[in-house]
Design brief:
Blueprint: H1 8-22, E1 27-33, H2 36-52, E2 56-62, H3 64-74, E3 79-84, H4 89-97, E4 101-106, E5 113-119, H5 120-125, H6 132-137, E6 151-154, H7 161-172, E7 180-183, H8 188-201, E8 207-211, H9 214-218, E9 221-223, H10 232-239, E10 257-262, H11 263-268, H12 270-278, H13 283-295, H14 300-310, H15 312-316, H16 321-330
Helix pairs in contact: 2-14, 2-16
């Protein structure tokens, strides 16, 4: 059959469209956040999507609040693999309502866990230490590093969101009236170091911490019960707000830790979006991986290979058998 010149471009365009629709995936960016669990997840996502789905996923530097704001205002990056959403929930919900963002799935299936903790060996010796009343009763055990008359409560490092919540709850519990002083550990490493030091010496320790973390993976800690349960409205409207003047006692509600994408990404990359909806880690899985990273001084990329090679049962549940085969071949 003779093809008329005017018909040829249409036929070529149709063929191109068929090939394009058959393509597995396109190009997009994933935020590589500046903390270990998020960096690990970002590298896992990149490897699985690039090798299993033939995507062109690029990692770019990210941070919690700046990344969320950038996704809302600029539409970049396309994916934030791990966001602790309580701190910026209002902005994220507004972004979803305005069809700029989508909640794709849970990064941490159990949600992030925050609280005031004491070592398990203390609770074994003094069972009442599992409650705030028991901690206050034994306040004299919590030695202050610089004072013989004060007791130590280790708070969250300055500049972190949890500095606000820990200080509000310290005040709501009136711990200063029991002789406690809120100590700024200076950094995340400094806070972890105080727990490690206490454990090595079998000493009392009391302070804020969160999970999943390598510290709570290595050291058996007990979350102190305030006896109030979690008041979500109080937590959102006061505990997390810097200008709250009359905080009330509440346990930390579980913190949703989610994968957020732009709306445009969700529409143009349905297969990748479906992967994000299925991908998630339990706190125990992540704590184990974080402990491995710390022990081996590994970055997110090294931890990604360790995870994919050592825990195939976990990640194969997120993908089809065909995709899993491609990933194994790439490994």
């Amino acid at each position: 059959m003779k093809i008329m010149p005017s018909v040829l471009p249409v036929m070529l365009l149709s063929a191109f469209s068929i090939n394009a629709s058959a393509a597995d995936c396109g190009s997009f960016t994933i935020a590589d956040m500046n903390w270990n669990s998020a960096s690990l997840i970002a590298h896992v996502d990149q490897f699985i999507l690039n090798n299993g789905y033939q995507c062109d996923a690029e990692l770019i530097a990210g941070d919690s609040v700046p990344t969320g704001v950038s996704m809302i205002e600029k539409g970049k990056p396309d994916v934030a693999p791990e966001l602790w959403t309580n701190g910026i929930k209002e902005a994220l919900d507004k972004g979803v309502a305005e069809k700029r963002l989508r909640y794709a799935g849970k990064s941490l299936l159990d949600g992030g866990e925050e609280g005031f903790w004491v070592p398990a060996y203390l609770v074994k010796q003094y069972p009442e230490m599992a409650t705030i009343e028991g901690v206050i009763k034994h306040a004299d055990l919590f030695a202050h590093p610089e004072s013989d008359t004060k007791h130590a409560f280790y708070g969250c490092p300055a500049g972190w969101t949890c500095q606000i919540t820990a200080e509000h709850l310290f005040n709501a519990l009136k711990l200063d009236e029991s002789g406690f002083e809120l100590i700024d550990p200076g950094s995340g490493a400094g806070l972890a170091g105080t727990i490690s030091k206490a454990y090595d010496r079998n000493q009392a320790w009391f302070g804020y911490y969160w999970s999943p973390t390598p510290v709570l993976g290595k050291y058996n800690m007990v979350k102190v019960d305030f006896g109030t349960g979690a008041d979500v409205e109080e937590y959102r409207n006061c505990t997390t707000q810097p200008d709250c003047v009359s905080p009330k006692v509440t346990m930390y509600p579980p913190s949703p830790v989610q994968t957020i994408t732009t709306e445009s990404f969700a529409q143009r990359e349905p297969q990748a979006f479906e992967y994000f909806a299925k991908r998630g880690f339990t706190n125990q899985q992540m704590s184990t991986l974080l402990a491995w990273m710390e022990d081996n001084q590994a970055d997110g990329e090294a931890a990604m290979y360790h995870f994919l090679e050592q825990y195939p049962k976990t990640w194969k549940a997120w993908v089809s058998s065909d995709v899993a085969a491609k990933i194994e071949k790439a490994l």
